[in-house]
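Weekly structure sync, notes
Attendees: PL (lead), two postdocs, one rotation student
Agenda item 3: pending single-chain targets
PL asked that the sequence for the first pending target be pasted directly into the notes so everyone works from the same version. It is reproduced below exactly as submitted, 129 residues in total.
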Amino acid sequence: MTDQQHPITPPPELVEQLRKEAPLGGVARERHLIAAAYRAGADQELEACCEWLKAKEWIHPEFSNELRAARRPKPPSLKEQALAQTNAILNDPNRALLTEVRETLELNRRALERLQELEGQDQLTKGSD
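Predicted structure, written out during the meeting:
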């Protein structure tokens, strides 16, 4: 086999980093390395597509940022996860929860929603400065 460089071959530094981060042996190591390589290749391809879009004069320059955001969404925050789980429990009529637990969860949900409202207002205030 020839030592031919493919355009999406990872740089040696990345290969070394992935090797160091991987578990020590067996199937877990193989799965970790395969998933990491898959992610790295997909990320590199996405960045190449975004750069290509930026180079096109007939496409709005922000489109590449929108593409990146759509293809690599940020995971939900802990607050968003807590709110979603709380709502799922409160809205599930098949769950038999003690009244005190339901009331506590309802209080937590309202507090999280209020925090979300306040953060949204804070973002609007910062944007108008």
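Discussion points:
- The chain has five helices and no strands.
- The helical segments are 12-21, 26-55, 63-71, 78-90, 99-128.
Action: rotation student to compare against the earlier draft before next sync.
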